[in-house]
Amino acid sequence: MAEDKKKKATGYDKYVNWKLFIFPVILFALILMMPTPYGMKDVGMEYNVGPEAVVEFITYELYKTKSSDATQWQLLTAQMMERNIRMGALNVKRFLKRDLKWCKKYKIQADSKNLEKAQNYIKENVTAEAFEKVMMESLKLRRETLKYENLPARIKKRQIKALGISRCPLP
């Protein structure tokens, strides 16, 4: 009689032992509930906030102005230098070899006059040593100095949204 009441396994019930499967499901849910570690936040911040901070740093180091107040060619110079940092091209020779095709490839808005002004400024006013020093300081800023804990609250909120972190208590 008991054998008649027991249902025959169909679908996934044929292959899955649900009594054992519940453990990985609970473990997965616990992992999802864990807070995001600061190391992960720092890496995400390096890619979201880092380029903006590096451009700001370069415009201040070269022109003693904010990136929002810089002229187009000055901003173009800083954006090209920031892109070179991401590529690992830290010397002035590589910077001077860049052209409009390269700018277009890396989605940097440029025209021939601004590119010429930017390259002439670097060629005439910045020595190779000074250029490499600015590049190394910018790299250090992006990789080491920028920390999630040191960001202002408004940038932290933007970072949390960009990383897709659903719940993160802000200090």
Describe, in plain words, how this protein is organized in 3D.
The protein has 171 residues and is mostly helical. It has 2 domains: 2-36, no CATH class; 40-163, no CATH class. 68% of the residues lie in helices and 0% in strands. Helix 3 (38-48) packs across helix 10 (153-163) and helix 5 crosses helix 8 (112-125). Mean pLDDT is 84; it is low at 166-171.
Structural topology:
Blueprint lengths: L1 H4 L12 H16 L4 H11 L1 H14 L8 H16 L4 H6 L2 H6 L6 H14 L2 H18 L7 H11 L8
Helix pairs in contact: 3-10, 4-5, 4-9, 5-8, 5-9
Order of helices and strands: HHHHHHHHHH
Coarse structural class: mainly alpha
- Backbone shape: elongated
The overall pLDDT, averaged over residues, is 84
Estimate what percentage of residues fall within beta strands: under 5%
